[in-house]
């Protein structure tokens, strides 16, 4: 839990942020109202680390160096008005087969059930590499579901200035033509790069309710 009145590293005031539930099935999901911001991406792309720095909390969302650790839908209540939702990561081959097979129905089912409550999906890709086939498929899912999404290139602190420009161009070439794609941001949970711009999109999403 983030203490009341704490400001995130990018000066966004967080009155409260609380971990509420890990859902393994629909009946586990909290029912309290509020707009949802959903975080999706490949295993170990940095979803939990990004959530923590956005909220100014070091350990609210559990991080791990082991790809595929998050296998539940994790709900965080922010300022008692909206939600951050961390979905299981995809694309890690060493995860047991039954877990990989369960991922699609779990995530697709969640997006279908919660479509009207989702203000924005944040699709994380590794800024250092071309988006994977599964990244592209996730974008296609969001397009089909009619869910607006922002593409965030993570780990951008590891790139030079020219490398960031090339990465941004590459990501936009892949996702930029999507009708539901609202923008592209390069970010880093290490040095705060891009987080102020990212919060602008998040604010718009939760205020649109």
UniProtKB/TrEMBL annotation:
The keyword Cell membrane does not apply. One of its GO terms (molecular function) is GTP binding. Residues 33-208 form the EngB-type G domain. It holds the Pfam family MMR_HSR1. It comes from the Bacteria. GO terms for biological process: division septum assembly. Its cofactor is Mg(2+). HAMAP family: GTPase_EngB. Belongs to the TRAFAC class TrmE-Era-EngA-EngB-Septin-like GTPase superfamily. EngB GTPase family. Necessary for normal cell division and for the maintenance of normal septation. NCBIfam families: GTPase_YsxC, small_GTP. This is Probable GTP-binding protein EngB. It comes from Candidatus Polarisedimenticola svalbardensis. The gene is engB.
């Amino acid at each position: 839990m983030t203490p009341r009145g704490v400001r995130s590293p990018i000066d966004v005031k967080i009155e409260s942020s609380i971990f509420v539930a890990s859902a393994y099935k629909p009946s586990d999901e909290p029912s309290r109202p509020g707009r949802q911001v959903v975080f999706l991406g490949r295993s170990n792309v940095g979803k939990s680390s990004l959530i923590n720095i956005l909220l100014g909390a070091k350990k609210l969302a559990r991080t791990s160096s082991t790809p595929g650790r998050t296998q539940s839908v994790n709900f965080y209540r922010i300022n008692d008005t909206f939600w951050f939702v961390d979905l299981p990561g995809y694309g890690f081959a060493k995860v047991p087969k039954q877990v990989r097979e369960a991922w699609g129905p779990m995530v697709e089912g969640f997006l279908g059930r919660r479509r009207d409550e989702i203000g924005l999906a944040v699709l994380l890709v590794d800024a250092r590499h071309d988006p994977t086939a599964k990244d592209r498929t996730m974008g296609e899912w969001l397009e089909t579901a009619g869910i607006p999404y922002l593409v965030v290139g993570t780990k951008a602190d590891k790139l030079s200035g020219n490398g960031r420009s090339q990465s941004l161009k590459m990501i936009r070439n892949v996702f930029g033509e999507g009708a539901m794609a609202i923008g592209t941001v390069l970010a880093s949970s290490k040095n705060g790069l891009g987080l102020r711009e990212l919060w602008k999109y998040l604010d718009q999403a939760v205020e649109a309710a």
